[in-house]
Amino acid sequence: MLIIKSIETKNGKQWPEINLSNISTVCVDGPSGSGKSLYFNELINLHFNEDLFKGNSIVYIPQVPSTFNGSIKDNITLYRNFSEKRLELLCGKLNFSHIDLQAKIYDKGLPLSGGELQRLVVIRALLCQPDIIIADETTSAMDLELALSVHKELMSNSSVFLFSSHHDKLKALSDIRI
Fold first, then answer.
1. Ramachandran quadrant class, 79 (left: phi over 0; alpha: psi -120 to 50; beta: rest)
2. CA-wise closest residue to 100 among 59, 123, 126, 72
């Protein structure tokens, strides 16, 4: 049984305990500046310091995608070996197959758009096949239809999916909101 204990973040907000026994999707809800990112950072710290997620593999997708000067493929794989078939499959599912993976990207991911950069890091996360995904405003630069598709893919590729979003239709996909 996986339980996330109640957490108080640095801004003084108290987040409730969550029993993940029968829950797979959690929306961390609140207005901008309410501490959602702080909460995710606390979860990550607890995981690495206290094995919060009990040996489950975890991937964190931050609000701002990080990239480096190099090919799009290298930015997705981070120079690790992954199945080309799985990479192609994920690119297709996440509306990224029109992108030339050998093309170069530069400072801040240029020339990719914000939504393309977000999909790049989602593909990076999904290639790892994690048990738990924590996604902080991961689809904020995408239109709602694409954001829904990406969220459904994240949900179907993890046993636990914690996310934040300002889209009500994405929030509605969650089992609970905290």
1. left
2. 72
Residue-wise pLDDT tens digits, 111-131: 999 999 999 999 999 999 999
- Go through the domains of the chain in sequence order and give each one's CATH number: 3-177 (3.40.50.300)
Find out whether 148 and 170 touch, Cβ atoms under 8 Å: yes
Longest Cα–Cα distance in the chain: 46
Q: Which two tokens stand for residue 146?
A: 């694409």
Nearby residues of 168 by Cβ (< 8 Å), 6 or more positions away = none
Per-residue pLDDT of 96-114, as tens digits, reads 999 999 999 998 899 999 9
Local structure of 117: helix, strand or coil: helix
Q: Residue 10 has which token pair? A: 């640095």
The pTM of this model reads 0.92
Q: Residues 43, 134: contact at Cβ < 8 Å?
A: yes
